[in-house]
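Support case: user asked for a sample of complex input and structure output to validate their parser. Sending the pair below.
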Amino acid sequence: MSFEVYSLPFIAFFLIRYLRKTLKIYGFFPEWDEIFKKALYAIVLLFAIEIIFKINYITVWIWDALFVYLFWLTFTKDEFYITRTVMVAIMPIVIISYVEDISKVIGADFSKRIDNYLEYLYPFAFIWLVAMLVVAYKHRKNYDKEMQRKKEEEAHNLMMAEKKAELEFMVKERTAELTRQKAELQHTIDELHNTQTQLVQSEKMASLGELTAGIAHEIQNPLNFVNNFSEVSVELIAEMASEIKKGSMTEAMEIAEDIKDNLLKINHHGKRADAIVKGMLQHSRSNAGHKEPTDLNALADEYLRLSYHGLRAKDKSFNAAMETHFDKDLGKVDVIPQDMGRVILNLFTNAFYSVNKKKNLNIEGYSPLVSVSTQRISSSGKAGLNGSPQIVEIRVRDNGSGIPKKVLDKIYQPFFTTKPTGEGTGLGLSLSYEIVKAHKGDLKVKTKEGEYAEFIIQLPA
Amino acid sequence: MADSSLLKIIKMKILAVDDEKDMQSLFEQRFRREIRSNIVEFAFASSGEEALEYLNKHNHEAVLILSDINMPGMSGLELLKHIKLKYHTPPPIIMMITAYGDAENYNQAIELGADDFLTKPIDFTVLKQKLKLTSDV
């Protein structure tokens, strides 16, 4: 059968070609490529020799050996993995061919018997071949798909890596930018802090400057008397001495009386200057005391009596009625007692001063009254509501001469006073206002000129 | 005596305006020799209003006014303005005496026509020299 005789070289040829092509597609193996190329030439040459010299009985063994070698190659070398299905496909044909060849060697009879069986096997081998080639085709397609997917994945991964690197670079850049901006902002904040400190300092200096004019006036006036009365007294003593020498004792005694008056004046104005300086120190002193729970009712009562008796000691004719309306449920409030005492004292002093002034106008039926009341209220205004934030109020009210509208906005200014020179420093209310503000509270005033004045201290409780 | 008649002619009437009550005693003691020898005569007012009242009542006989600036009610500067603008010619000489020696007060006083500006504590030697100069003119 010519088919049987000539099928092997063709199959070998196409198989090697197939192997070569596959290897080229799935990875370049130059050493195999060269071997396969030479093998192809060799097959063509051997086939030609086989036909020309009719040495089929020899060459058939070479073809068989070649197939054995190819099978061995494909099933042992990993790089031939993809070609294995094709090898399986051709396997039955090759085996049949072996059996034929071996049977021929054994003997003609045997060969004929075998051939009968093989006649039947050939179609099966072909069907097997086709089926397996189809399987191989599908296998390869899947493999191709897998490889494609892998390639895409790799490309994707590569792209991701690039993107990641790019992003990382951007992040680094952005971070650097942010760090720079942060440093800039920090610098700006530092500058702002410095400016603020300077502003606070210059504000202090400015208020000191404002105070300076006040201090000048308040100190220079008593100083004027201290300096001049002492100088005059020196002159008077010289005069007194000469009068004594002359023997005119009456004149000498008169001069002595003048000197005594002068010394009293010097003393008075010296004390006045001292009081001003003390007031100033009090005004400028920063938080010396500590906040502690304080009974504001007791504090108000104590200072009410203190200020009243203080005034009585100075002026025997002074008299005023006092009323207290203390909230029994006031409880203790966190304040600096000496500071809050100063505020309350100041408000009482002002109230007594005001009623005394009005009393001196001799208005018929007028009776001076100073009253103090305390109350705990919720900040929304309704008394004693539990739960809502609460405040404590201290009201100091007098029925004196009130505060004229035109000075109402000046009463908290340092050194503003309506009292005659020497009687008030003008620091009382400004100091009080600062103390109440330092307690996070509020100092309010209600007044009607000629009728009353009411100062309201509101403190958070 | 020619001397004493001359003294009488140049006798200076001074109105001192200050809300500090001890000022009267101070002026009287500081000028006690001048007062005794009739070179000067003092009148006192404790406020601007009182000073104007005095000037009206006494037909502006004061030739020199020494006024404080910072006083309750009418301030010394208001008084100065009042006299310099509304009073007869020649207006009296006005010297301001104040504890506020700052430029603003000074400039305002000079602008309003103050003839001189002194600061407290008063240096009476300087004051007397200034008075002597004005009486010599």
